Amino acid sequence: MRSETRGAAAAGLGGWKRDCWAGELRAADAGREVTLMGWVSRRREHGGVSFIDLRDRSGLVQVVLSGELAAWGAGLSPESVVAVRGRVALRPEGMANPELPTGEVEVAASDLRLLNRAKTPPIYTRDLAPRQHGAGGEKGSASAGERDAEGETGEAMRLRYRYLDLRRPRMQANLALRHRMVKAVRDYLDARGFWEVETPFLTRSTPEGARDYLVPARNAPGKFYALPQSPQIFKQLLMVAGVERYFQVVRCFRDEDLRADRQPEFTQIDIEMSFVEPADVVRLTEGLMAHIWREVLGVDLQTPFPRLDFAEAVASYGTDKPDLRFGMRIADLTAALEGCGFRVFGEAARRGEVVRGLAVPGGAAVFSRKDLDLLTREVQKFGAKGLVWAAFEPSGVRSPVSKFLTGEEVDTLRRLVGAGEGDLGLYVAAPPDTAAAALGHLRLHAAERLGLRDTAEWCFVWVVNYPLFEPDEETGGLGAKHHPFTAPFEEDLGLLETAPLKVRAKAYDLVLNGWELGGGSVRNHSREVQERVFEALGLAREEYLEKFGFLLEALEYGAPPHGGIALGVDRIAALLAGEESIREVIAFPKTTRAACLLSGAPSDVGTDQLAELGLRTRDRTFEPV
Length: 625
Ligand code: ASP
Description:
By secondary structure, this protein is α+β, with helices and mostly antiparallel strands. The chain is built from 17 helices and 22 strands. An 8-stranded mixed beta sheet has the order 6-9-10-22-21-20-17-11, with helices on both faces. The protein binds aspartic acid (ASP).
């Protein structure tokens, strides 16, 4: 044997050159001499011969080590890095593995080079649990035992050893999918005359409704940069600069209390265009989505996407990001039941409440009494006092409140939610916001239970006609529904000072299967209107001049009418990949406490470094998970 590196734990390439991918070998390659490089995925010994599954990014192929190489192979630890030279051969009769793309062949090794011996990995590097739908990933064929083991591996270990977790075919497929998606975005926008322009990360605060991440300025002790919550102001300045069509695949930073689908840093496709109305941005975005779906999944989306008024979305689906893969619209029964014998319903209007409900198709036979008790507790979490249910069965209605209602009133309960035989009616009497949130939640819960959330179905919808402002509970004043640069409808301008909550915004949000993919608006390009909006928001003149004076000034130097949108790359990639969490499509995500378990960020810094920045810290304890 020629390899001089046999005894060493690690070696360089020694002049060897990889000349093909392990996962691409097929029967037609039989007889070919190849040099492969990759990781030892699995190893087994049989009859004096050693078999290893050699894995690289493309997949894996079986390598056969016989003779002197067999003993050598038997000592290889899993995940060690090797180079193999050998000849591709058809597997012996009856030994083909139809589960594996390379399953008809194996590589009979003539030489092997150990490039780096690996310690036993603390987590699995194979896929164990099946993904939701196949977008290039492997369907798992794990035993229940293995799946439990993965569960026990736990999120924390996966993040701590992310470079091992990312070796799993599923994670590799996710990274590849995300790459293809971003490339499709760049190609589409480039073909339409958009320029990708970078905007600063060390900047001033950009209000998008979250807390800023601050960076202390060494040269100006006591002063701070803010990391951008979005490039909003800079992209508007690029329109003033005459760039006309801008985009950027850009990281944004928001210091929020994290939920499952949020990360402190996330990526947006940020777009801005001059001389446009909302319809232009909407059309461009629809084309972009259709292009992504075609390129990444080979799926043809139907455009234009439907549109829904904000108010209608909240009334009918209990949320402004409705999942339209299923019906179960929420109906209002307040007026129809006014005065009825069941006082919770009959006197709701007098208490300033509404009675709303929905029908779960086929739900009468699906939901047990215990389930319904659970649902009651669910709506109570949203502040509703209780839940009323009615099962519409062939023999008549079954409901704890039927004895308080006339036959006609029971019929109203059934008719207004559109329930048929076998359906379950669910009703809540509560203040409007509470009723919307509670029923919106029940709707999703019921859909999940009935298996109506098909991950291969794509229901896009634009939510439009948003109000410009919303009440700010903390201050008692107004807050911006989107951000303060959004333009009002021209015909509503007169209401800015007199009835600001009635002012509609030239804004649009794109929703897919209940996920908000992004949103945007046409902006204020006149200084006068922008100042009136700041004033309606209760900002003192000195305050908005201090924060946004540079934007207001720019608006006076020939700012064209402009508008744009930003779309969440992580969310789009997660949906395309059939993943439930954006963490699965981000190479190095953070925990819900915004910690990086791999690098140990955030971390302490030396007192010298702090002194240089003019900072002192108080001791705090921090739990990273
Ligand atoms: N800057 C906005 C955001 O990040 C999007 C936009 O209005 O274009 O949500």
